[in-house]
Amino acid sequence: MGLDRPNTNWLRNELNDELTDLGSVQGLSRALDRFLTAEATRRMAITSIALKRYQLRHAKWPSDLNALVPEFLPQVPRDPVDGHSLRYQVTSDNSFLLYSIGKDGVDNGGDPTPDGTSKTFQWQRGRDWVWPQPATPQEVQHYYDNPPK
Questions:
Q1: Rounded to whole angstroms, how far apart are CA atoms 30 and 68?
Q2: Number of domains in the chain
Q3: pTM
Q4: How far is CA 119 from the centre of its chain?
């Protein structure tokens, strides 16, 4: 399961011959998984900063990531898992959804539901790796009204 399956991401596909030459090296597979997670996080952080800069300058979120080029980014950022653009959309609550398809290699539409590998919340463990957003005032109030046990 995950990025160690064949054909689950473009980087692994590009390295297929080299990985075959090295044999089935578990350590290399885990290192590649960690690299992809870190690289997706880095790209989403840079993109979210560019999105905020756009929003501050234009008083609205861009309709797509192409609007960030070249003023805020040199090119549209790619998802390191599949090589396509990071997924982005403006949401109805005047925020945005930015995500990578994550370890399972499947676009789940920005579903941050944990994949079951961790008992604690870590946003990089979701079905899709969704860039975290600040809690809304309603979410904060709900937290205080219903504190964790």
A1: 33
A2: 1
A3: 0.73
A4: 20
Band of residue 18 on the pLDDT scale cut at 50, 70, 90: low
Residue 54 has pLDDT above 50, yes or no: yes
Is omega for the bond preceding 70 within 30 degrees of 0, making it cis? yes
CA 123 to chain centre: 9
- Domain extent at residue 72: 2-145
% of the chain surpassing 90 pLDDT: 47
- Buried b / exposed e over 115-127, threshold 16 CB at 10 Å, is beeeeeeebebbb
The type of residue at 43 is R
CA distance readout (Å), 106 to 27, 43, 48, 79, 109: 23, 18, 22, 12, 9
**Residue 83 confidence (pLDDT):** 92
Of the listed ranges 52-56, 82-86, 105-109, 137-141, the least confidently predicted one is 137-141
Buried/exposed code over 89-107 (b: 16+ C-beta within 10 A; e: otherwise): ebeeeeebbbbbbbbbbeb
Q: How far apart are CA 149 and CA 140, in angstroms?
A: 16
